[in-house]
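Researcher: I'd like a structural prediction for the single chain below. Treat it as a standalone chain; there are no partners to consider.
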Amino acid sequence: MLLQTVKDDLKSLIKDTVKIEKLYGIAEEKAMAVQSHVQKELKRVEKQLGEFDIRFDKLLNLHIEGGMTTEMFKHHNERNAHQQQELMNKKANLILAIEEGKNLAERKEAFRKEVERFTDLDISDEQVLKQFLQRLIQTIEVFEDGKIKINYNLSNPLPSN
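Model: Treating it as a single chain, here is the predicted structure.
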C-alpha cells in the first residue's frame, strides 16, 4: 500500500507540471534553508574560535603577572586547546557542508531524474526497491486520521546512469 501511495504521489506530481515544479521548489527552499543555517553556524563557530585566542591571551597575561600557577595555566590551556580543536573540526565539517550545498542545481536535476525513473519503472526485486525508496524518501509521516505525508530527499539522490 505504501509503495503504491508513493508511486501514485510521484506520478500525479509529474503529470501536473505545476505540482512537480512546486515539489522541486519546496525541496530547493529546504536545501537553501539548510545552507543558510550552516553558514550562520559557521560564523558562530568562527566567532567562538576568535574568543579562544582572546581567552588564551588573558590566561597568559594572568600567568605572567603571577595571578595563577603554572599548573593552573596548563590545565586551563589544555582544556581550551581541546575545546578549540573540537570547534576547528566542526568548522571543517561546516565548510564541507557549504561546498556540498553549492551543487544544488546538480542535485536538483539528479533528484528530478530519480523521480522520473521511479515512476517509469516497475522494480520487481524488493531489496533494490527498498534501497531505491530509502534514497528517494527522507521521511514518511502517518497521521492518526490515516493521511500520509512524504518528505522527499533532495540531498542524496541516487547517481544517474
